[in-house]
Amino acid sequence: MTKTASAKRKRAEREALKAAESNKRAKSFHDASADGSNSPDSNDVADAATGSNGTRLPKILLEKKLFVENSTGKDRVREAKLYDLLSSENETDRLEAAGAIISSLLDDEGVTEACLTRHLDWRLFRGLASGRAASRLGYSVVLTEILSQLLGPPRTLCRDKYPGLTFDKVLEMLMERTRFGGNISGQEERDLYFGQLFGLECFVRARILFLEEEGPDRWNEILRLLVKLGGKKIWLRPQCGWVVAQALAQLDRPRVEMVLQQLVELGWAKTPEGVGIWLVAFEQCPELTTGDKAKHHHPLSSRNLGELAGILKESGQDDVEKQQKQQQQQQQQSRRGNYVKNKQANWTPQLHFVWDLIVRHFLRKGPAGVDEFRSFWKRVVDDNFFAKTATEGQKFRGFLVFQKMLQSYADIDDLLDVLFSRNLMTCLINQASQEDRFLHRAALKTLKVVEETSAAHPEATGIILDNLINNNGLYRFDVMTKSKTVDKILQHVKADTGEDVIQVLSGPVMKTSTTSKDINSVKLDLRVYIEYIFRLTTSAPEPALQELTSLAYAKPIWIPENANSLVTELSRSRLQSAFAKLSRKAEDANYLCTAVQSINPDYIRMEGEMKKEVHAARKRLEKLMKKSASASESSTDEIKISQGLALLHAIAIFQLYNEEPDAFQLLSDLKEYQTRLQTDEEGAAEFLVEILLSLVSQQSSLLREISQRVFGYFTSRVSPKALELLLDVLSADESAKGQQSLFDVDADDMDLEDMEEDEEDESDDEAGSDAEVDSNVEFDALDAGDDEENDDDEGESGSDEEADDEEAQNLADLDDALGQILNSHRLDKDEDAESSDNDSDMGDDDMLELDGKLAEVFKQRQKAAPSKKKERKAAKESVVNFKRRVLDLLEIFVRNEAGSPTTLAILQPLLQLVRTSTIKTLSDRAFELVKDYQKRARKARSGGGGKSTEDSKLDLEEAVEVLKGVYAELKAGETKSHAKAAVPACLIAASGVFHAGKGDRAAVDAIVGDVEEAPPTQLEMKKAWDEWCRNQEALKKKAAGSAGKSK
């Protein structure tokens, strides 16, 4: 049949399919019209439902019916649909279609020989060359089964039923339908190659090649064709080799030896495919390894490793010579000015199947084969794929081998330890460190696999870490590779293996600290070590905190003297950051208290008075922890108070350990608070808010987190006067004046003229002040990429120290300049000064010259002084940040006390902040807080949680005063953002007056009622209030109706 006839046949099949679909739709419509319904037939619905989810084919396709030789009409449609489904990407559809086709060809008496020939020749073998969807997979299933029944036992249909379909005839059909040649495209050529490969594989899988009555002729012919096909395209050879390897599973030892001999004769013995086939043979017939001669031929024996390395490297001496000649030609042409396009390496992310067999070989041997594996890895991989002379493509393949074996041997420590060899680690670090390297992405992918393997196998983390930062790796691995590999690995450490990991991390830095003479290198390693321990606090907090505590206070003997101050400062800072992180994540507040209690006070050098104070504070902390643990479930308020005081004591003790100047004051304030709590509860609440404000104003994330948590424990005890202390912060000016009022800055330190200019410069600073300034600033390149922690205390302390150093340096420079001009020196430098014999008086000209020089020096000094604008900006930012933190506390208060009458007092200050603040983020936060308050107040009144306003006996006069203040603020606003916040705030206050007056709206109407000619905001408020009242009436009627029904 010609191609034209084939095209006509396909076109006829498509037309038949379309006609069948049209007839079916017409019949469905006719049936539905006849019985007066629009629903389709139930069978059709079932068929459509089962067909749509891909679990079962329509019944018409699965019926037991043989194909006919000359199909027409419904038979042709059924045949076309089945073959179409045979190409489906849905495996269930594909397999059911394959079963239906096999049954339609060979069930019962089977079809005629002509019909079977047609299907084999024009359907199945031609379908193997199709690249559509999953055609090759589906057609291979059908062909394998047909070949098995046609040419193999028990049926062997070719003897009686189909004598014309012999092995040679069927194989000839395959070769005819997959013959390539002529002017065809590259894609068509690839389809034909793969079709022939899949067809030959069907003969192998049908298990018809090694029948005793047939002899070796069938296998010899298939093997010849596979070797021939593999020789035509290099990318086909591994696939052909894998088919041969699969065939060995059907053979006994004599025939296996025969196949191995054939490979030698065909020239495949010393190829990667040959190595793979030999490994399969030894795996299937272990007795082949007995005898000296057999051992000599084992591919992985030590005597063959040199030759094996060349085979697996897949580049012989001829390729090297060709590459050198090509480079010489390119250089010559470049000298002549000709453009030469560099040829790209043909890399593939898929490894040869021989590597799977090698992995399986050593995996089967386990730890007993570690010596053999070490020799193999060094000779074949490390000194081969990662040698200096290796090409980029070979190194890329080496990375793939490493990834595969790393994932396979993660549970075998001895084999895992061998993988991180010298050349591999050198190549990995070099390629990962620079983006312009050819294998940079491959190296990053390899590091990603290392991270994933560590996460999937936490027990292997110690060995992986040891090889990354020790042995053939680098201690500053993340710094050198510009990655976070070690950082992420430390996050997957199991808590029970934390101490072992710390030993792995500390080993190299201890060795460097005690043996290295380069103090700068030692300090870098110590900084990295502290960062590693800090990262470990996430996954193994207890041992990591103990190690950080030891570094911060104990001063280990292995740390050099000139590095002690660095280690102490940095470890204390990271310890504080760790506490802040744990305070955010830990549900149990006692965790932080326990961590502080675990710090041995003997580590810290303290004077007698300080030691007594610490001892007493630790006793009080212990009592508070016991009290919170022993309190009954009913006394939740006492538990919260004990937990809050315990947290504050823990912070105070920690600050004492760090020699913070305000630590003693905090402890004395806590004593006074506990005393006031027994006598004056309202005064104690004010005093506690003052303590928390003093903590939250500091540039420390830990103090901010603790302050918020403690405030959450004490919100039920916050009095109106205590709340007023928080609200006063919101009304402060966002300028130097506000800073002076909030932080008690001395008036002498403030320039009156500067404060007057603040208001003029506020608009200029608005954009720069919109972000919080107390973010963490790490003065170290190691932490430049740390996006997880914002340790505000480090940035603040670093800024202060830097400012002090800069001021001292400026004064020293001024002294030097004046000394050179006046030929003089400071009194404390008499011993170092040179004697001067020039005691002559200066003349007028000299005095004028001296005066000019002094004026120039002081002019430069004035230029070097800090900018007043920067000082004003810093003052404004400090006030803005303080307001942000107060808003955090108010958010907690609203969350816990939305139903309390005390909470109404926050409405007017929040609206004033929306109206007066020049910082958009502050206005937005205040608006969101008003909306949150409205939602939570509504929920509290409906009994959904919190304290009910009605139950709290809200005073009507106080509620009216709050409403007047809020409504006055509503009228003062001029912006849309203020109006959006003012209307819900007024509704909250108005609803409070409504409930305090027991459902009488007259008091509210007296304030917001007369708005006939009012501005739009007041009209909107009146409309919202009327709507709210109508909703209340509807709810009241609904409740009354429900009560009547219940009676």
Automatic annotation (TrEMBL):
Compositionally biased tracts (Acidic residues): 745-807, 830-847
Location within or outside the cell: Nucleus
Full protein name: DNA polymerase phi
Annotated Gene Ontology cellular component terms: nucleolus
Keywords, sorted A to Z: Nucleus
Pfam families: DNA_pol_phi
Ranges annotated as biased composition (Basic residues): 1-11
Species, as recorded: Colletotrichum simmondsii
GO biological process, one term: regulation of DNA-templated transcription
Principal location class: nucleus
Basic and acidic residues: compositionally biased ranges: 12-33
Domain of life: Eukaryota
